[in-house]
Amino acid sequence: MIELAVSLFQNIFLAFYNLGYAVSHPMEWLNWSDRTALVRFIYYGASSEFLFVVLVTIIIVTVVGLWRRMFLWWVVRVLEGFSNGVGRLFAWAGLIMVLQQIVIVFLQRIFRVSEISVGPFGYVVSKDLSWYAEELKLYNAIIVCLCCAYTFVQGGHVRVDLVYAGVRFRTKRVIDMLGSLFFILPVMSMIWMYGWFFLWRHLVTPKISASDKLELLERKSRLLKWNVETIGFSPNGFDGYFLFKILLVGFAGMMFVQGVAFFYRSLLEFLEGEQSEGRFHDRDSLPDLTEHEQQASQHNGAA
Predict the structure, then answer these.
(1) Residues paired with residue 226 on neighbouring β-strands, in sequence order
(2) How far apart are CA 166 and CA 160, in angstroms?
(3) Does one domain contain both 96 and 199?
(4) Nearest CA among 47, 267, 32, 245 for reference residue 173
(5) With bands split at pLDDT 50, 70 and 90, how would you rate the model's confidence at 295?
(6) Where are the beta strands (DSSP E) in 84-198?
(7) Is residue 124 in a domain?
(8) I want to staple 254 with a disulfide (CB 3.0 to 4.6 A). Which of 34, 149, 216, 283 is the partner?
(9) Would 123 be classed as within a structural domain?
(10) Same domain (yes/no): 112, 221
(11) Are both 256 and 189 inside the same structural domain?
(12) Are strands 125-128 and 115-118 parallel, antiparallel or unpaired?
């Protein structure tokens, strides 16, 4: 028990040093032309050192926010604004997916075209129609992974309520905070750690394991080279499946950020009471209908 406490405090103390060193020496992990820097980036991206840097950052922001609540409200607005902005942008992938499917059907069934060539900048790329048909799964994955945090902000996820609706306001906020701390953040951390090494195992060779120590990876760096996976499920099908692995990591990162924002919002609403409910909440809303438009809508519904 004592060893665990000592290790915990040691990692928290080292988090300040690790963060300062990473910020002051960016080329030692961002200069990907140097293979040693690349393996450092891969290692630290899902390491215990990075976890404690994130943990210490959250603790510092929380302490400062309890001292200056408007600062914490500003953090909530920034984090929720990030989720809203990314979600609203990539929600257009749904429209692109529908339009592309219509084009594929027309070209295949009516014009009997077997491939599509695209060359807007003079470099022509020709792909079989089956490639574009399988690519539709990528648009669907974009919507699921990059719009999930946005849907959370908008309150669009389905919830199973057993006790939540019947309890008092501050009790609800306590439930929300516990849900963030014990469900959202741990689960997203696990998905990130799994997805991170799952991604890099399909981008570089020799393959990197989550159990590899930094010293071993630095020795491996002499043999490291890019080996991006381009294997499809069919001979002429979509071959960019490594993009799905990137989306998995993006999903975990965005939902972790939203979990932190949700905890902060719940904490602030708990402290400030019911009058703070929904404060600075940027929810989507339909424009108000005029009386004439409402009558027309009711008439169309009756018809």
Answers:
(1) 204
(2) 13
(3) no
(4) 267
(5) low
(6) 115-118, 125-128
(7) yes
(8) 149
(9) yes
(10) no
(11) yes
(12) antiparallel
Instruction: Please say if the pLDDT value at position 4 is more than 80.
Output: no
Domain of 20 in residue numbering reads as 2-91+147-276
The span from the CA of 110 to the CA of 133, in Å, is 16
| Measured distance CA(93)–CA(84) in Å, rounded | 15
What is the token pair recorded at 113? 């075209």
Number of structural domains found in the chain: 2
Residue with structure tokens 């997916």? 97
Query: What is the model's pLDDT at position 117?
Result: 80
Q: Is residue 49 part of a domain?
A: yes
Q: Under 8 Å CB-to-CB from 66, ≥6 apart: which residues?
A: 72
Q: Are residues 104 and 185 part of one domain?
A: no
Rounded to the nearest 5°, which phi and psi values hold at 177?
-65, -45
Segment 74-86 mean pLDDT = 96
In whole angstroms, give the CA distance from residue 57 to residue 35.
Answer: 29
Q: Is the pLDDT of residue 292 over 60?
A: no
- Residue 288: predicted pLDDT: 59
Q: Which of 112-116, 276-280, 286-290 has the lowest average pLDDT? A: 286-290
Rounded to the nearest 10 degrees, how much is the dihedral formed by the CA atoms of 265, 269, 274, 277? -10
- Helix (H/G/I), strand (E/B), else coil: 175: helix
For the question of whether the overall pTM of this predicted structure is more than 0.85, the answer is: yes
Q: Does residue 125 carry a pLDDT above 90?
A: no
Question: What are 9-51's pLDDT values in tens digits?
Answer: 888 889 999 999 998 999 998 898 899 999 999 999 999 999 9
| Residue 289 pLDDT exceeds 80 | no
Angle of helix 242-272 relative to helix 129-146, nearest 10 degrees, comes to 20
Type of residue found at 84? N
What ranges make up the beta strands (E) of 4-124? 115-118
Report pLDDT digits (tens) over 169-180: 999 999 999 999
Which helix H or strand E contains 205, and what residues bound it? strand 204-205
Residue keyed to tokens 């703070």 = 276
Give the mean model confidence (pLDDT) for residues 230-258. 89
Structural contact between residues 244 and 141, judged by C-beta atoms closer than 8 angstroms: yes
